[in-house]
Structures are given as structure tokens and as C-alpha cells.
């Protein structure tokens, strides 16, 4: 006697009330499985769709912005090495000042070395952006150390009614010493 025959025989021995209870139990189990396997995951995905859609839209917007920036950079006229060197010299002179930085050209490897002496960090960041935009030069190597803080006495700030506000100008400014090797555009 196989399993289905045994099941049919057992079913035949059950009373009507017991058959009804078994049918209800099987139906409940089938509905629970249907919910856990088919409906609940689909409803979770449907509920999460607007947030995921917004995240993907933001990512797409960011990628489009990056694409536009890349196209703008590609559309810029290419500089030859002499023009790039002149633009880099100008950016060092105007952005970093003659007393804080010195530009030295190296051999035929298409690089220029900028030596920094106690240059504020925000000035270095602005100069790097200017060198990239104007001279098409990018940093190839950087050896920077934090410059020692000047030992000039700082005036004691006067208390203000809002004691929680700190004066940003009284905080010591980070300064850098070292060298930055800038790669210039290839010679044409």
C-alpha cells in the first residue's frame, strides 16, 4: 500500500468534523505560505520602490553632472608645455605668493616642483584647483608636513553674551611645508 492509498484510507476513517478541521488547517498553511513566499516580498519591494527610485534619480543626476564636467574639460583647448608652464608660474606667484612658494622646473619629464614654506592649507587647496584649471597641471607627487605654529602671543578673546560661539579667526590655521611635483601637459 503506497502513501496516497494510506492517506485516502485515513481520510475515510475521519469524521466530518475532523475532515473540516483538517481542511481548514491545510488552507491556513497554504495561505501562510502564499503570503510569506509570494505576497510579502512583493509588497516590501513595492513599498521600497519610491525611496529606491529617488536614490537612483539622485545618482543619475550626479553622474550627469560628472559627465558635463568631463565634457567641459575635454572641450577646453589643449595647452602646450610652454603655455602651461607660464600659467603655472602665474598661479604660484598670484595664488601662493613669492615669499611662500618657489617654482622649479625639472628635466624633460614634464614636471615642475613647487616648494611650499608655511602656506595656509586653504590657500594650497585653492592654488591646486587654480593650477588644474588654468595650467592643466595635476599633482603627481606631494611631500607635505605640517608647519610649526608660530609662537606669537595671541590676544585673549573678550567674552561675549553668547559664550557658545567661538571666534574662528582666533583658531590656529594649519600651514604646510614641503614640495608638490606637478605634471604638466605632454609636449605636442
Shape: rod-shaped
CATH secondary-structure class of the largest domain: Alpha Beta
**Largest beta-sheet characterization:** 4 strands, antiparallel
Q: Which stretches are poorly predicted, pLDDT < 50 over at least 5 residues?
A: 152-165
Measured as a percent range, the helix fraction is 40-55%
Tell me what portion of residues adopts beta-strand conformation. Answer: 15-25%
Order of helices and strands: HHHEEHEE
CATH architecture of the largest domain: 2-Layer Sandwich
Number of domains: 2
- How far apart the termini lie comes to 91 Å
Radius of gyration: 36 Å
Spatial strand sequence of the major β-sheet: 1-2-4-3
Strand tally is: 4
Global structural class:
alpha+beta
User: What is the CATH topology classification name of the largest domain?
Assistant: Gyrase A, domain 2
Summarize the SSE layout with pairings.
Blueprint: H1 3-13, H2 16-75, H3 81-96, E1 101-105, E2 111-120, H4 121-135, E3 138-146, E4 175-183
Antiparallel strand pairs: 1-2, 2-4, 3-4
